[in-house]
Write the structure tokens for this entry.
Amino acid sequence: MKLIKNYEYNPITPEPFEIPFPVYFELYYKDIQLATYRIADELWIDYTFDNTYGIPIITPEREPISIDDIYFLLTCRVFRKNYPGIVQELKLLGLNEYNPYYIVKKTHGLMQNDMYWIKFPDEDDVDSYEKAV
């Protein structure tokens, strides 16, 4: 695993976290696939997005995007590290420590205020928003 750290912006936590590279995931809005992200060991990012539906995506609609953009995407889809119920939440998720990547893997990055979610390739049983919820 490689350790990455955001250097430009991060509204949730300025602390670094590990991501197992290479990594691939898709961003959805309801059942519409908006973007795909492939990040290589060298932190090279292959990114595609579909703006056919006019739905805004969480990362910039420009290429190339940076590892900071990926860091922002993952950290904005999880609960804050200083959340009062963090110990219980991590226990419910089966995690021993706060790591936005692994929290998103468990929760699909679902938030109560929107219908965006993230799918990883090993989740063949999750093929719709309803199954992610």
User: Anything to note?
Assistant: DSSP finds four helices and six strands in the chain. Strands lie at 2-4, 17-19, 23-29, 32-39, 45-49, 116-119. The two ends are 28 Å apart (CA to CA). Residues 5-9 have pLDDT under 50 and may be disordered.
